[in-house]
Amino acid sequence: MNVRRSAAVLAAVAVIGAATPAVADPSPSSSQAFPSALYGSTDPKYDGVWRQSLALLAQDTVGVKPAAKAVRWLERQQCADGSFASYRPDPTAACDAKTMRDTNATSAAVQALAALGGHDDVTGKAVDWLKSVQNEDGGWGYSPGGASDTNSTSVVTGALAATGEKPDRVEKDGKSPYDALLKLALPCGGDGDGAFAFQPDKKGKLAANADATAAGVLGALGKGMVVEPGTKASGPSGAACAKASTPEQAAANGAAWLTAALAEDDGHLMSALAGAEPQPDYGNTADAVVALAAKGDTAQAETSVRWLAKNAATWAAQSGPAAYAQLILAAHATGTNPRDFGGADLVKQLNATGPAPQATGRTEASAAKEDSGSDFFGVWWYVGVCLVAGIGIGFLFTGRKKQQHL
Fold first, then answer.
1. Is this entry keyworded Membrane (predicted)?
2. Which among 338, 101, 112, 337 is positioned nearest to 225, based on CA atoms?
3. Ramachandran region of residue 238, left (φ > 0), alpha (ψ -120 to 50) or beta?
C-alpha cells in the first residue's frame, strides 16, 4: 500500500458495500500548497499519512535518517484519541465526529514510528485506539465499525507486532485477528484453493483476491511491512493446500496460491480492475514478493523481484513515494540492492520526493564495497537459509486511492 489498495480490493468494496462512510466529493482538493514536510506532490487527501509512513519506513529500512520535519509532520497528524485519519490539512484543529479515522493509516504510522524509535507515546496511544475499535470477530475494517476485511486486519496485526504486542492475545469477545483471518481464507479445492478473500460478498461467499492474499499471508504470520532477508517462517510449506486450522497453515496455503498466480504471468500479478485493459499490477507484485520472503518461500520471489527491476520504473515514477517505498521493501526482503534496482537508485528517487534526509546511513566507500561485493540478490542472501515460496500484501501496499472511501 503508497497507494494502498489494489483495483481488485476497491472493486470489492464497491460491490460488497463495505461499511465505510461515503465521501461526497472525490475530486482533488482546491489548489493549495501542500506541506513541505510531506512526501509526494499529489493531493494527499486520501493517502497523505499512508504514503508518508511508507516513505519513512523504507528510508529507515535502508539506513537513511529521515528529515526531522517529515517525522514531526506524521506525529502531528494523530488525533487526541490516538487514531490517524488519511490526511488532516490542519493538524492544529481538533479531530471531531466528522474526522474520518482510518485503521490502515493508523497502523502504517505505528509501523513507521516504531521502526524509527523514540515515539512510544504516539504509537502506544495509536495501538490503544486500534484495540478499542476491534470487531467482535477479532478483525478490523478500514473504518471503525466497518466489516472486517483481510487487508485492514493484516496491517493492524503488523502494527501490533511492531510495538511488541502478541496479536493472538489481542482479543475481542475471545476472538483474535488470527480468528478473523481464518474465516476469510478459502478452503482448498476450486478456484480459491487456499487464497484469501477481501470480505465475504452479500451472500457470504468468499472469492479469491490476490491483493488480500498477499496481505493475509503477512497477517497470518504476524508480520509487518518490513521483512528481513533470510527469514524462515515456522509452520508448513510447499505447494499442497491443506485445511487451514491454524494461521500458519492459512499462510502456507495463501503463499502457494500466490506463487501459482505469479507464475501464470511471467512473474507478476495482473490488475483485476473491472472494465480495464489487462495490465500488470506492480504494487501487488511487490507486496507478493515481501510476503513470499516473509514465509521463507523465495524461488518465486526472486523471479518476481527481477521482473519488477526490469519493468516497474515508469510505474514508480508516476505513482510517487509509496511506490518507491514498496519497491525498496521488496528489494530489502529479498536481499536485493535497492540502490541498483534494474539500474535505478530507488533510495535516491524516494528521497527526492520529499524533504532531504538527515543522513544516508552509509558512506560512498561502504556503498561501493557493498555494490561491488554483491550480486542482484546479495551474497549474504544465499549464505542464509534457503527459503521456500510465498505471498504478498496488496494490503501491504498497493494502491490506496480515493475510491477506498466509496
1. yes
2. 112
3. left
| Conformation bin of residue 239: beta by default, left when phi > 0, alpha when psi is -120 to 50 | alpha
- Which of 312, 308, 52, 291 lies closest to 155 in space, CA to CA? 291
Alpha-carbon distance of 255 to 258, in angstroms, equals 5
Distance CA 215, CA 147 (A): 16
Contact 342, 44 (CB under 8 A): no
Q: What's the count of helices (H) and strands (E) in the chain, helices before strands?
A: 17, 2
Assigned C-alpha cell, 198: 477481501
Using CA atoms, how far apart are residues 43 and 238, in angstroms rounded to an integer? 43
Q: If we measure between CA atoms, which residue out of 215, 144, 216, 158 comes closest to residue 183? A: 216
Q: At residue 205, what is the residue type?
A: K
Within 13 Å of residue 125, how many CA atoms lie on the same side as its CB? 12
Torsion, CA 337, CA 108, CA 284, CA 406, rounded to 10: -160
Q: Give the pLDDT means over successive 10-residue stretches in the chain (406 positions).
A: 39 36 38 85 97 98 98 98 97 96 98 98 98 98 97 98 98 98 95 95 94 97 95 72 95 96 94 81 98 93 97 97 98 97 98 92 43 38 31 42 42
User: 189: exposed, middle or buried (C-beta count within 10 Å: 0-12, 13-18, 19+)?
Assistant: exposed
Beta bridge partners of 359: 65
> Can you say how many angstroms the Cα of residue 387 is from the centroid of all Cα atoms in its chain?
21
Q: What is the pTM of this model?
A: 0.84
Domains and CATH numbers, the chain: 7-22+41-405 (1.50.10)
C-alpha–C-alpha distance, residues 210 and 258, integer Å? 7
Three-state DSSP string of 13-24: HHHHCCCCCCCC
Q: Which residues pair with 78 in a beta bridge?
A: 84
